[in-house]
Fold this sequence. Notes:
By secondary structure, the protein is mainly α. It has one domain. It is elongated. Helix 1 packs antiparallel against helix 2 (45-69). Strand 1 and strand 2 (39-42) form a beta hairpin. The protein has helices at residues 7-29, 45-69; strands at 33-36, 39-42. The chain has a two-stranded antiparallel ribbon. Helices cover 67% and strands 11% of the residues.
Amino acid sequence: MAEPGSPLEKKYWVALVLYAVLAVLSWFTLDGKIPVGGRLVELRLVPLVIIGGLALRTVMAMKAEKIRRGDE
């Protein structure tokens, strides 16, 4: 990772916090079920999967940057 307190590290933590806020908001505001592949799936799971994928991508990008800089 970049040095503690660097702009890159601050953006990383802000992004993860915002992903968590979006996940919580989508959990409490969405309701209902939608048909997917012949079965009903809760609507609130769809954005959680997408947000989780974006968060995973952000974590992997930060790990890759850490490796590129030789900090690990």
